[in-house]
């Protein structure tokens, strides 16, 4: 699929060159760490993870809302260089596990190198619209940061999240929504987190269609203006 291949190409470039695809840094907000702080990451926590894992490509900080506990298994979809995986690993401790899923070889290579000193971290290659590479009911928590908007079949992606969560498990994701959905697809705009966005109403409907009954919006704030559309950053929580 053209969109998916373009996304892989762009994020491979992000991994190698630290170029932004979908972040406030497109507007010149500074270093990757400064971009991460801008969307909600704690500066002191960022100092405790590998520097190479901080690329500043998120649109929020889902871990601020995830309530991770010691011993939990947390899965990060579209884990990139590993920032949320490493932050999660510290929160769940040695009795827990943090697993990153990404479809981009460059990101997986970068993340794996960053993980050299972590015993409770692993990264797996997977396409979340096809199959998340985990057993049914394997995760206590699934997180994601500015990734689902890039998928072409959001119900399928949320259905996979539902499958891998334990009963009572939770999904906490930061993502982008729009006030007006694209009528036609522009591949470049899709990768730039504009054309792939749903309205908040349709986004929530996609989550519920995947099986989730308990869905709540924890945060919503303006993000960017793109092609005459208002793009907002949201944090959404859903429980299986």
Describe what this molecule looks like in 3D.
By secondary structure, the chain is α/β, with parallel strands linked by helices. The chain has one domain: 3-Layer(aba) Sandwich (Rossmann fold). It has helices at 2-17, 32-38, 43-46, 63-66, 83-92, 105-114, 154-164, 187-191, 200-209, and strands at residues 73-77, 97-102, 121-125, 139-145, 165-178, 214-226, 229-239. The chain has a seven-stranded mixed sheet. Helix 1 (2-17) packs parallel to helix 6 (105-114) and helix 7 (154-164) packs across helix 9 (200-209).
What would you call the structural class? alpha/beta
The proportion of strand residues reads 25-35%
Order of SSEs? HHHHEHEHEEHEHHEE
CATH fold-level label: Rossmann fold
Average pLDDT number: 88
Task: Kindly provide the name of the CATH class.
Answer: Alpha Beta
Helix content: 25-40%
Q: In this structure, how is the largest beta sheet organized?
A: 7 strands, mixed
Global outline: globular
Number of helices: 9
């Amino acid at each position: 699929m053209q969109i998916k291949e373009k996304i892989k190409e762009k994020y491979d470039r992000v991994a190698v060159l630290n170029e932004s695809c979908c972040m406030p840094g497109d507007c010149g907000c500074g270093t990757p760490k400064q971009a991460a702080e801008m969307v909600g990451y704690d500066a002191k926590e960022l100092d405790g993870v590998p520097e190479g894992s901080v690329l500043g490509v998120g649109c929020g900080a889902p871990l601020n809302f995830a309530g991770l506990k010691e011993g939990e298994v947390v899965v990060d979809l579209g884990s990139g260089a590993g920032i949320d995986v490493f932050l999660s690993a510290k929160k769940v401790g040695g009795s827990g596990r943090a697993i990153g899923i990404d479809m981009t070889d460059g990101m997986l290579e970068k993340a794996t190198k960053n993980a050299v000193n972590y015993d409770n971290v692993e990264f797996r290659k997977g396409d979340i619209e096809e199959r998340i590479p985990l057993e049914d009911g394997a995760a206590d928590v699934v997180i994601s940061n500015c990734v689902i908007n890039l998928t072409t079949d959001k119900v399928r992606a949320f259905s996979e999240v539902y499958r891998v969560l334990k009963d009572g498990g939770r999904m906490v994701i930061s993502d982008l929504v729009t006030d007006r959905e694209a009528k036609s697809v522009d591949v470049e705009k899709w990768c730039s987190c504009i054309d792939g966005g749903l309205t908040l109403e349709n986004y929530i409907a996609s989550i519920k269609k995947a099986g989730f009954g308990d869905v709540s919006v924890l945060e919503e704030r303006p993000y960017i203006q793109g092609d005459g559309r208002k793009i907002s950053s949201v944090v959404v929580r859903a429980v299986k």
